[in-house]
Amino acid sequence: MKGFLGVLPPVLLLDPMLRVWLMEDIGRGDRTTQSLLSQHHTIVQARWVAKAQGIIAGLPIAARVFYLLNDQISFVPLKAEGDPCQPGEVVAEITGAWDGLLMGERVALNLVMRLSGIASLTNLYVEKIADLPARFVDTRKTTPGLRILEKYASAVGGAINHRMGLDDAVMIKDNHIVAAGSITQAIQQVRSQIPYPLSIEVETETIDQVEEAVQCGAEIIMLDNMSLDLMTQAVGLIRQQDKRVKIEASGNISLDTIRSVAQVGVDFISSSAPVTQSPWLDLSMRLI
């Protein structure tokens, strides 16, 4: 892994989301736990055990889930964010009142399994090009309501976050070009209105579009769904005309193709696959 890039969301943003998800799961009360356990203050211990190989992400978020239910619960991660795990390894230990542990179990586990799955697949992509200059980048293809956490998990896996939302940067895509009339007109209109220091990225599919984007001063040029031959030609053109322009490759990126794309000489390679295609990393909580 090239380095840990994840920044945890502040509790100001995190806690309201976690409260909603806890209320969704608990509803009017945990019928099972509250019916069976009369002494809710009884202190118990539990362990989180990995059932598959992968990269751990989200344990501090899980700790926050339990804290919101009972601030006396102790959640101790035994793995740092971004650490690998093997089947059978204990990744966290929890001590506290058993009603809090059982009511928070599913929300906390679901989040960590989902985020660890994203981090695990992201890391496979990152490791494919770890010895090359190109960096792996995520996209805005995320689950509504979960973007901030899914992008955190992507960063834990070693990716660089692309823009978090439409306000982060300007990306002129194919439909914007059609609406504006041309790449030149789109860049001119956008540049006259955006605040400093937003950058402008242009999505291109042909060499003519690449040349137009360079001539208009785009800071980043995306080579979208290009063949390796066409991409090689585009990279050569851009480097010759303006070495300051950053180049991003996107479209049909897979574990089988990412290295070949990186060897063309692009700066960034973006893909939604780690978020849209990752399986959950299986974990379980076992009371001691």
Automatic annotation (TrEMBL):
Q: Mind telling me which CDD domains this protein's record contains? A: QPRTase
Q: Which reactions does this protein catalyse?
A: nicotinate beta-D-ribonucleotide + CO2 + diphosphate = quinolinate + 5-phospho-alpha-D-ribose 1-diphosphate + 2 H(+)
Q: Which residues bind substrate?
A: 106, 139-141, 163, 173, 203, 224, 250-252, 271-273
| Pfam families (alphabetical) | QRPTase_C, QRPTase_N
Q: GO terms for biological process?
A: NAD+ biosynthetic process; quinolinate catabolic process
The free-text function statement in the UniProt record for this protein reads: Involved in the catabolism of quinolinic acid (QA).
Q: What is this protein called?
A: Probable nicotinate-nucleotide pyrophosphorylase [carboxylating]
Q: Which organism is it from?
A: Cylindrospermopsis curvispora GIHE-G1
